[in-house]
Write a structure and sequence with these properties.
The chain has 1 helix and 35 strands. The chain is mainly β. Strands 1, 4, 5, 6, 7, 8 and 9 form a 7-stranded mixed beta sheet that branches. Keywords: Signal.
Length: about 450
């Protein structure tokens, strides 16, 4: 059969006496009972051949075809209704297949389809009408209330992530997992009896239940630069492995739709089919050995000390300390100038160059800007260590070798650090590489910068 869009049919049926003994009245005359019966038998047989072969349906054992008449039960309305049959995904009461018919001419009129094989499937019972059959069989009073067929079972152990929205009764949840290549934020959790809509609806496999997590994803922002912490060009070493833990089983899933800006998704749906007795279900994110977990039952997160700084607020401090271009000229030939600024400091567990901070630590990342100019043809120079001295909550931190040459200085500090004191001492040692240069060696000192960074 082909399906076509028909005029919407209102629900309701008037139960009346059948047509007269002579047959069914039409605009072209009365169709005798035996003629109507022959047409009905043929059409009903063809209808059954097709619907009996359909899957995902509930076909009533007494399903048959009827002529649709006016409320008085005497005049054909030009349609045939067959059912009841409730197909998967159809609304309540849409249990009748309707076929338009027309009367043939001649001394003894008969019936034929008005448009061959053009059925309007899964309609409500025609309103202000009655059903009639030459054998006087009636439709059951409860025919319109035929139950929906059971949803087909999904595959056992189904685990999938999609961008398709589902109509779910969500329990609100706001837990999140943050990794360098993206941030997952829960919107809600559910344990629906079925998943999907219409003909796509599925029930859990035997002995299993569905657990659903709806979440959004965004890029993880590097607080120092205000942009994605990982971009697609440098992401390979930073990609996170996501798994769903069901008992001792690890099921891999693709949670993030991309890397960097491509990691944004307003809503994604994680569907997991698990044994009915599963008490807790965990989404695990593993990145370079750092493991974080999020319960899909409670929405609570389990985070290592290494990643803890991702979940702190107030981790950015504007330092705004600088000195202008300062000239230091000594003797005849040594001429130099230098400027330095300490711009910003942030506390973060991950650095694009260093990766994750050591256990129990976080990276204090200090953003600097400097410019050194000197007569490099006559002299070579080196900075006198230490350049940057750091204390975290009053405790001294070992200096970072070569810090004076870096635009961003990563310093490992305790993960719980709240107050950092910074002192930048710029002392330059120079040595002549030309025998005629004077002075031959010495040091020059530029202004010292101090700054305080306070974190929540």
């Amino acid at each position: 059969m082909k399906t076509r869009v028909g005029v919407a049919l209102a629900a309701g049926l008037v139960v009346v006496a059948g047509c007269g003994a002579s047959g069914l009245e039409t605009g072209a005359g009365t169709v005798e009972k035996k003629t109507a019966s022959a047409f009905l038998t043929t059409t009903e047989g063809d209808w059954h051949k097709e619907v009996d072969a359909e899957s995902n349906k509930n076909l009533d054992q007494s399903a048959r075809c009827y002529f649709v008449t006016g409320a008085d039960g005497k005049q054909s309305l030009g349609t045939l209704a067959c059912g009841p049959i409730r197909r998967l995904g159809t609304p309540e009461r849409q249990v009748w297949d309707v076929l338009a018919i027309q009367t043939t001419g001649g001394d003894k009129p008969g019936f034929e389809p008005a448009d061959t094989d053009q059925w309007q499937k899964s309609q409500v019972r025609p309103g202000n009408s009655a059903f009639w059959r030459p054998d006087d069989k009636k439709a059951d009073d409860n025919a319109d209330a035929l139950a929906a067929p059971p949803a087909p079972a999904a595959q056992a152990g189904l685990t999938t992530v999609s961008d398709k929205s589902e109509k779910l009764d969500l329990k609100p949840a706001t837990g999140k997992l943050i990794v360098p290549d993206g941030t997952l934020t829960l919107k809600g959790l559910a344990t629906p009896e079925t998943i999907g809509t219409g003909t796509e609806v599925k029930a859990p496999a035997s002995g299993e239940k569905f657990v659903v997590a709806v979440f959004s994803t965004t890029p993880t922002i590097d607080p120092l630069i205000g942009a994605s912490a990982v971009n697609a060009g440098t992401a390979k070493s930073s990609l996170t492995k996501w798994t769903v833990t069901v008992g001792s089983e690890q099921r891999p899933v693709e949670v993030l739709p991309g890397v960097g800006a491509e990691a944004s998704a307003a809503e994604r749906t994680l569907l997991v089919s698990v044994p009915k007795d599963t008490s807790d279900l965990t989404l695990t994110a593993t990145n370079a050995g750092v493991v974080q977990k999020l319960s899909l039952t409670t929405g609570e997160r389990t985070t290592t000390d290494v990643a803890a700084a991702y979940y702190r607020t107030g981790v950015v401090a504007n330092l705004n300390k600088s000195f202008p271009l300062t000239v230091r000229n000594i003797g005849v030939y040594y001429k130099s100038s230098y400027l330095l600024s300490l711009q910003k400091a942030v506390l973060t567990p991950w650095d694009p160059d260093k990766g994750w901070a050591p256990a129990g630590k976080a990276w204090l990342r200090v953003q600097t800007e400097s410019k050194l100019d000197y007569n490099y043809i006559l002299y070579k120079t080196t900075w006198v260590a230490p350049f940057l001295t750091v204390t975290a909550d009053g405790a001294p931190i070992p200096p970072v070798p070569g810090a004076e040459t870096l635009d961003v200085i990563p310093v490992p500090v305790p993960a719980t650090t709240k107050v950092v004191q910074l002192t930048a001492k710029s002392v330059l040692s120079y040595t002549a590489i030309d025998s005629g240069a004077t002075p031959t060696s010495g040091t020059v000192t530029f202004p010292t910068l101090t700054a305080t960074a306070t974190f929540q």
